[in-house]
Amino acid sequence: MRITVLGTGTVGRTLAAALAERGHDVTVGTRDVSTTMARSEPDAWGNPPFAAWSADHPDVAIAAFADAAADAELVVNATAGTSSLAALEAVGDGLAGAILVDVANALDFSGGAPALAVSDEGSLGQQIQARFPEARVVKTLNTMNASVMVDPAGVGGGDHTVFVSGDDPQAKEVVTELLATFGWTDILDLGGIGTAGAVERLLPLWIALLGTLGTPAIGFKVVR
Amino acid sequence: MRITVLGTGTVGRTLAAALAERGHDVTVGTRDVSTTMARSEPDAWGNPPFAAWSADHPDVAIAAFADAAADAELVVNATAGTSSLAALEAVGDGLAGAILVDVANALDFSGGAPALAVSDEGSLGQQIQARFPEARVVKTLNTMNASVMVDPAGVGGGDHTVFVSGDDPQAKEVVTELLATFGWTDILDLGGIGTAGAVERLLPLWIALLGTLGTPAIGFKVVR
Q1: pTM above 0.80, yes or no
Q2: CB distance A208–B190 less than 8 Å?
Q3: What is the mean pLDDT of residues A15-33?
Q4: Cβ within 8 Å of residue B37, ≥6 positions away
Q5: Window B:45-74, CB contacts with A under 8 Å
Q6: Distance from B27 to chain A by nearest Cα, in Å?
Q7: CB within 8 Å of A152: residues ≥ 6 apart
Q8: Alpha carbon of B187 to those of A62, A219, B220, B221: distances in Å?
C-alpha cells in the first residue's frame, strides 16, 4: 500500500519503519524537508536527528506535507496532537478519499508534566474528521507507547487491546488488517469517530501509570 | 469495621450488602430516612424501592447523613458524583479522621446518554479531598459496574485491575485489604489523590464499551 506518515518524531519513525518492513511504499511527511534534514542535534527527547534515521532507512522517502500524500491510499497522523490540524491543513488535497489514521494525542507540555489538552470542540479525532470530511478518519494506536504500537507481543505476550474508532467501516477494516500485521490480536471496534474521545481520555491514566510503574511497556486489556 | 455507605442506589446497596456479608457493621446513609423508606416505586433504573431491599438486609442499618457517619471508621461515598459534595457536607463532622472511600463518578445525564461532567476544579476525588482535608480520601472502584466491584471473579476469572489513589498510605492499605476480601488480586496503587482524575476519565471508555459490547461485565487490566 502507498502510505504516508506525517511526523518525524519517535511515533512517526517507528510506524514508518514498521510499515516499510512489511513491504509498504512509505513516505514520511514533514513541514520543511531541508530544515528537517539539516538538523544535526538530538531532539528534546534525545532521539538522533532525522537525517541519521533516514540514512538507516533508505527505503522510506521524505517529502513536504503538501507533496507527501498526493498518491497515498493511507495517511497516518503521527504529528504532535496540538499541531495536527495545522499539519493536515498543509497536506491539503492529498487527504480527500484517503484513509486517515489518527494516532495522535493532544498533550500540553507547558506545565512540565504532560496533560491532556481537552478541547470544547470534541476529541482530536472528531475535530480532524469534521475539518476534513472527505477523509476517512480512523482513530487507533493512541493508547500505548510507539514501540508497543508495532510490537504488542513485547508486553504481556500481546494479550491486550487496541481500539479502533471511525465512521467508515471499510476504512476500519483496512486498518484492522494493518494492525494484525503488527501482531495485534485483540482489535476492538469501539464504534464511530464519536468514540475517539473515550480513547483519547485514556492518556492521563497512561501517564500516571508511566510514573507509577516506571516503564512505558504498558498495555490496556478490556477483559470481557 | 464500622462502615457507613452513603447512597441508596445500586452501588450503595451492592457495597453495603457485600460489606455486611463480610461481617462489618454497616450503616447506609441517606438524605432523609423517612422519604427514602416511604418510596414504593422502583427507581429510574428499575431497582426495587429501598424499603424492600432493606427488609431483605436487616443487618444493614439506615440513618440520615448527619448521623450516619458519627462512629464510622470508614465512609464510602456511593452517591451520584454530581451531588456528592452536597451529601458529604450533610455528613459533616463524621468525616474528620475517617477513611473516605470515593467510588463515585460525576456523570451528566442531561443529554440523555451519560457524559463525564468535567470540572475546572479537578477530579471529584481531588475536590472531595480539598473540601474535607481531615478525611483520608481514597479513590477506587469507580471503573466498573457495581456487581463487578464486589465480584471481580465474575469477569474474566478476576484477572483485571482495580486502581487506588490517595494521599494517605495507611488509608490505602486498609482499602486494599477490603478490596482483597471482595476477591481483587490486581490492586494497583496509582499514587496520590491527584491521580483520581486519570481513573475518572476512564468512564467515557467504559460507557462506549457498554454500548459496543452490550454488557456491563467489563474489566480493565493494566498489562505490564
Answers
A1: yes
A2: yes
A3: 98
A4: B50, B51, B54, B62
A5: none
A6: 33
A7: A144, A158, A160, A162, A182, A183, A184, A185, A219
A8: 46, 16, 12, 10
